[in-house]
Specification:
single chain, 434 residues, alpha+beta, Adenine-n6-DNA-methyltransferase TaqI, Chain A, domain 2, Helix Hairpins, 3 domains, five-stranded mixed β-sheet, four-stranded antiparallel β-sheet, globular
Length: 434
């Protein structure tokens, strides 16, 4: 790609460590303070840095196993199963034998190496082997080549790409806080019925008088159980129009100009990437989505794939296993969105009960059997006044992150290959303080 940077085997520019697992039969090895990552933890990590692991081990477990405790900024790459999932340790931790830890040698920035490996994912997967599980070996890293520019170029490249990732992570954290605020209001008003209970017991609702007046002071029986007097109950399936995406075949996909992305579970999680398929096939217009629409994935891994999303990737076509959610009234959009968010654990549990080979699902029949509350229109208007600004800010952050991610996907191969250079890299590094 127009680069005169030398290509070096990965094994020549870093130390490589294989993880290990303490004996499962020894309880004193488990449940300690040392985080212990599995390939699943790495594959599920949606940011550059891994900070969460499902399991922990003790110092005794570490000492009596092949597990390694490696420092923050160590690169971790999955070597079996989901080969090529990649992250950096956000703090010192250990990991199992389905992962490798890579630490750059002097002269090689681990941050640059992370992005170089990220650009080489297709190459990494091409050197894997296995009949049941794809696998890469320690020897594979002697055949895996990466471009190695000067130290200043490495630092400049990793700083540029890292800044994009850091802003995306900041937006993710902000959105987590914003969503917690909106969901707390939803749960208080429409699940726990706190204002109604307060009025029924003669207590202050803690709300402005004009809002408190919108809540009744008593309950009545319904199909759902006790709900606020005057409110309705209905099946979840009646809360909106749910349109399942279309089934696309390989013959539908094209790289031609003007093709639109096909949205699968991966696009809901990561936006449009280099792995996204595009099509110019015109199916029924009901499968075409645009920014701001609510999407509900109903099939996949119950822990990571089932969920409610807001699309912000521009015009696209919706693939099967995802519902396009169209509230019957515009005023119901926020209510339906946070209702679906609240029900995610229920969806996941239903999917888990039907899980086969790691995948599960819930159906229209399940949605028809789920009974939910439906508040009066005036209260929906007030709820919108409360959570609308929160939703809008969250969506703005999401849209910005999507734009930054697309920029990162565009810059990554060009920077790593040397097609795009950082001018005066030494001066850039000095001014950036990296």
């Amino acid at each position: 790609m127009g680069s005169d940077w030398p290509e070096i085997p990965v094994a020549d520019v870093c130390n490589i460590f294989l993880g290990g697992t303490p004996k499962r039969s020894e309880p004193t090895y488990w449940g300690g303070s040392i985080k212990w990552a599995s390939a699943k933890d790495v594959a599920n990590c949606r940011t550059r840095y891994l900070t969460f692991t499902e399991e922990t081990i003790t110092q005794k477990g570490l000492d009596n196993s092949a597990a390694k405790l490696l420092d923050k900024n160590t690169i971790v790459i999955t070597a079996r199963g989901t080969v090529g999932a990649l992250c950096m340790l956000g703090e010192p931790m250990s990991f199992n034998q389905t992962c490798y830890g890579l630490v750059g040698l002097p002269g090689t920035s681990s941050h640059y190496l992370y992005y170089a490996l990220k650009a080489a994912i297709a190459q990494i997967r091409s050197i894997s082997y296995g009949t049941v599980f794809d696998t890469i070996t320690m020897k594979s890293f002697t055949n895996l080549m990466v471009p190695l520019p000067s130290r200043d170029q490495q630092l400049a490249i990793s700083h540029i790409l890292g800044s994009l990732d850091d802003k995306i992570e900041l937006n993710r954290r902000m959105n987590k806080t914003l969503e917690s605020m909106a969901r707390a209001i939803f749960k208080s008003w429409f699940v726990d019925f706190d204002p109604v209970r307060a009025k029924a017991e003669g207590r202050d609702t803690g709300l402005p008088e004009e809002i408190a007046e919108l809540f009744p002071d008593s309950f009545e029986d319904s199909e759902l159980g006790e709900i606020p007097a005057g409110w309705e109950s209905r099946s979840l399936y009646e809360s909106a129009k749910y349109i399942n995406g279309a089934a696309y075949r390989n013959s539908h996909f094209t790289d031609e100009e003007g093709a639109l992305p096909v949205v699968k579970i991966a696009e809901l999680k990561n936006g449009v990437t280099g792995q996204t398929k595009f099509t110019k096939t015109e199916l029924d217009d009901k499968y075409r989505i645009s920014d701001g629409e609510i999407l509900l994935s109903w099939s996949g891994n119950p822990d990571t794939s089932i969920g409610t999303f807001v699309w912000c990737g521009g015009p696209a076509w919706l693939n099967q296993h995802i519902f396009r959610v169209l509230p019957y009234q515009a005023i119901e959009k926020h209510f339906v969105f946070y209702l679906l968010k609240y029900l995610r654990p229920v969806f996941a549990e239903i999917a888990r009960d039907k899980q086969t080979t790691g995948l599960g699902h819930f159906t229209v029949r399940d949605m028809k059997q789920l009974i939910v509350v439906h508040p009066p229109k005036k209260l929906l208007v007030t709820f919108n006044d409360f959570v609308g600004p929160i939703f809008d800010q969250s969506y703005g952050n999401l849209f910005e992150s999507n734009t930054l991610a697309s920029l990162g996907y565009t810059l990554l191969p060009r920077l790593i290959s040397g097609e795009l250079r950082v001018p005066d890299a030494e001066k850039f590094v000095e001014e950036a303080g990296v």
